[in-house]
């Protein structure tokens, strides 16, 4: 794993990173697995990471991963959109 680019965004209290993740002879890893590996690599808490995109070219054994690393949990909650709860919607339809 290596860092391809890194930007500091002080206003949003985060770092924007593009990493290259190697997965030779395997399929593209799941986001949860990538998140765990990146947290260990950067030595940050997993809950402060947000994976935006995972790009894998056809037949490639590495992926480019766009990641946001927040300075604190408050900044994460203020900036990131809230995930929609799918179970609440299905219960309303019944």
Strands ordered across the widest β-sheet: 1-2-4-3
Secondary-structure-based class equals: alpha+beta
Beta-sheet strand percentage?
A: 35-45%
Look up the CATH topology. Alpha-Beta Plaits
Low-confidence stretches: none
User: Major sheet, described briefly?
Assistant: 4 strands, antiparallel
Q: What would CATH call the homologous superfamily?
A: RRM (RNA recognition motif) domain
Provide a descriptive summary of the structure in words.
- This protein has 94 residues and is α+β, with helices and mostly antiparallel strands.
- It has a single domain, classed as Alpha-Beta Plaits, CATH 3.30.70.330.
- It contains 3 helices and 4 strands; from the N terminus they run ββαββαα.
- It has a 4-stranded antiparallel sheet.
- It is globular, with a radius of gyration of 16 Å.
Topology:
Layout: E1 2-9, E2 14-22, H1 31-42, E3 49-56, E4 62-70, H2 73-79, H3 86-93
Antiparallel strand pairs: 1-2, 2-4, 3-4
Summarize the structure.
The protein has 94 residues and is an alpha+beta fold. It has helices spanning 31-42, 73-79, 86-93, and strands at 2-9, 14-22, 49-56, 62-70.
List the defining traits of the structure above.
four-stranded antiparallel sheet, alpha+beta
């Amino acid at each position: 794993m290596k860092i391809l680019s890194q930007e500091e965004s002080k206003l949003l209290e985060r770092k924007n990173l593009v990493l290259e993740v190697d997965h030779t002879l395997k399929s593209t890893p799941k986001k949860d697995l990538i998140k765990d590996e990146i947290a260990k690599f950067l030595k940050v808490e997993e809950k402060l990471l947000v994976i935006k995109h995972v790009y894998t070219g056809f037949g490639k054994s590495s992926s480019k991963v766009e990641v946001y690393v927040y300075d604190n949990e408050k900044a994460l909650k203020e900036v990131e959109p809230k995930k929609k709860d799918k179970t609440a919607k299905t219960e309303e339809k019944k």
